[in-house]
Amino acid sequence: MRQLSRGPEPALLKRFRGGRDAWEDLPAGDRQALWAALTAMQGEVCAYCEGQAVPGRRHIEHFRLRHRYPQHTFSWDNLFGNCGDTKTCGHRKDAPKARAYAVEDLIKPDEEDPDTFFHFVGDGSIAVREGLAPRQAARARETLRVLGLDEPGGGLAPPSSGGQAPAVGQVALTSQQPIDRDVFVQRFPVNSAGAELALGLLLGGCPHW
User: What is the CA radius of gyration of the chain?
Assistant: First the structure.
């Protein structure tokens, strides 16, 4: 998860009103236009785990649940592009059997910098930064829990690796020490501007960091 800069509201959303219009009735063309605006904000990756948001699997995520906050169904600042992984991110957050949470406790990446709350560990996991105020630390832990990013497989290291990510370009992530995001990315031999997306592709899955 990284900080996002949200662009202007797409004009098409002004034609719809939460509580009056149904999200399911949004025309396919308008949905594609929304995806274009979301991609401009976050790239072709998930707003939460930064895994690839693949057409046909990805979905538009409502930060505030539609059935709890119908007035925000078509609010631009309530929409994010999501990877579509059924075990993490938006699907995990909104699952019928998910544990209750308060939306105010979650880190919203277009309003707050996730790097303030989390750091990346050499074994591919994500952890709460030390030294945070109690309220900040609690929100960071709750965000990881609700999005399923605190479980085995929720970090870069797949569950079958025993908590150790595979070697990429002769570099194995085995350290338990916190490392900077830029250092993390530099440890992988990617040679394109889409370093974070390439990292996810190299590891063959959704890089939950």
Answer: 17
